[in-house]
Amino acid sequence: MKSFTVSQARKYLRALLAQVRQGRSSLIMEGNHPVARIVHVASGGRPDSEGRLMRLETAGVIKRGMGSAGLLSVLLKDPPRPKKGGDILKAPLSERNEGR
After folding, report:
1. What whole-number percentage of the chain has pLDDT above 90?
2. Residue 3 — φ and ψ, nearest 5°?
3. Which H or E element spans position 97?
């Protein structure tokens, strides 16, 4: 997150808003104290899920994955096939008998 002084924010407001439209947030500082945060507002009354994720990530609540495989691609794949002669109940029953 970039930080700007109040005078810089006034001078570069259009550029600052362009960055916010791209999903970046900015912090406005007065001296050494933060006084405002500028974040993108979702249009049309829809939830701002990307902005919310960004805020949660900034707060350290979540960490987004870097992989390209999304949940939908995983769900659309066929499930793995069991091996021939395999028994799906064998492993859980043996663990129960071992006391795990």
Report:
1. 12
2. -120, 145
3. helix 90-98
